[in-house]
Amino acid sequence: MTETIEPLFQPLQLLDVTLRSRIVMAPMTRCFSPGGVPGQNVADYYRRRAEAGVGLIVTEGTGIDHPSAIGSGAHGESNIPVLHGEAALAGWRKVVDDVHAAGGLIFPQLWHMGVLRTPGTGPFPEAPSSRPSGIWGPQGGSRSMNPEYVERMLAPTEPMTESEIADVIAGYARSAASARSVGFDGIAIHAAHGYLIDTFFWSQTNERTDRWGGDPAGRARFGAEVVKAIRGAVGPGVPIMLRYSQWKQQDYDARIARAPQELEGLLRPLVDAGVDVFDASTRIFSQPAFEGSDLTLAGWTKQITGKPSMAVGGVGLSRDLLTSLAAGAVPENNLAQVLTRFERGEFDLLAVGRSLLVDPEWALKARRGEPFKPFSLEQLRQLY
Ligand SMILES: Cc1cc2nc3c(=O)[nH]c(=O)nc-3n(C[C@H](O)[C@H](O)[C@H](O)COP(=O)(O)O)c2cc1C
Fold it and tell me: Cα-flanking dihedrals φ and ψ of residue 48, to 5°?
């Protein structure tokens, strides 16, 4: 029998905004914004998803207003959009207006690449890359990156100073205020996958002995201060979503929390700082997070924080993101598993990445029980 996901087409109220469905477009870097400016092609791309049942779009990572926020990352990224400057903001205003006209909602994903930015690249090549302890990541580790890039990145650099930390936090706040000024409905924070905020969470890259490191609360402090600054910039009614992950690009097997108690130590300060929704980024949405329980990371996150959570990873496809980069992925209808966990209350929102990247109508097809399209790397070259 073909499963559909009708129960996911219920609205959800998040502070001042109402999502018309629980299907969220996951943030996906697309590299189609020359000079950091999203054009009409980007607006059309997001509008097509808003027209076809997606309740909320989280944009691709957008560089915050800080000199080392973006550049070329581990995969040679370029043409990444930013959230400051007249031209980029005018581009985003058009994206937001088009998505709104189609009845959708849209949050920008605020991004600082941190240790994963290749020094010497991006709009400010001379700016040093921001690293909490000057460490890129572990020597070993399960990852798929060019070994020469890794070798170069493993060379230690200076740890961030107090004033550098303050500058980055202020950059997040300015970008959040700019996002509101062009009509975005909420803010999504990228605190996952080995980028800046995540390297404060992760003890492998955070060896600081001051208040920005140490126990889980210390490692969460930078993220929490970013959240507080954003809250101050956007006001009380605007939802703030925060994405975190166990896995890192520097090591797919990395863990910031080995047990639920450690996870609680990291997430509690973020809740207190003002996060409204947690996006628990996993490679496979149904994978249990800790030994001895079937609960997923989104499930634990909701249980620990009492906040709505979002599940992600492999919905509609046979392989997770990382293996599909080498081998592609074929459609797989795993919606029965989605429904079971949604109806158990493990998560409130479902983020869909590659399935929505290749097919703007994926949500409608899932609702009607129609077949899905496969995913291959070639599809990244075009905005469908
Ligand atoms: C091309 C591509 C670009 C991505 N870029 C980002 C990004 O900018 N920010 C982010 O948080 N995750 C990014 N991701 C991860 C996705 O948001 C998502 O978590 C992941 O693809 C798993 O979901 P899926 O299995 O439904 O594709 C990207 C994924 C893909 C395929």
Answer: -60, -35
For 114, residues 6+ apart whose C-beta sits below 8 A from its C-beta are 129, 130, 131, 132, 194, 195, 196, 197, 198, 199
Among 155, 76, 157, 146, smallest CA distance to 118 is for 76
Residues 66-91: pLDDT tens digits?
999 999 988 888 999 999 999 999 99
Does ligand 1 lie within 6 Å of residue 23's CB atom?
Answer: no
Distance in Å, CA 162 to ligand 1 centroid: 31
The Cα 8–Cα 348 span in angstroms is 9
Dump pLDDT digits (tens) for 95-144.
Answer: 999 999 999 999 999 999 999 999 999 999 999 999 999 999 999 889 98
State how far the alpha carbon of 63 is from the alpha carbons of 128, 210, 270, 278, in Å. Answer: 16, 27, 21, 21
Query: DSSP assignment, residue 31?
Result: -
Q: For residues 172 and 346, what is the distance between their CA atoms, to the nearest angstrom?
A: 30
Domain boundaries, the chain: 6-381
Provide CB contacts within 8 A for 382, sequence distance 6+.
none
Q: Which residues are catalytic?
A: 195
The CA 216 to ligand 1 mean position distance, Å, reads: 26
CA 306/CA 30 separation, integer angstroms = 33
- Ordered alpha helix ranges (H), the chain: 40-50, 86-101, 147-154, 162-181, 196-201, 216-234, 260-273, 297-305, 321-327, 335-343, 354-358, 362-368
**74: which DSSP letter?**
T
| Architecture, CATH, for domain 6-381 | Alpha-Beta Barrel (3.20)
Does the Cβ of 117 fall within 6 Å of ligand 1? no
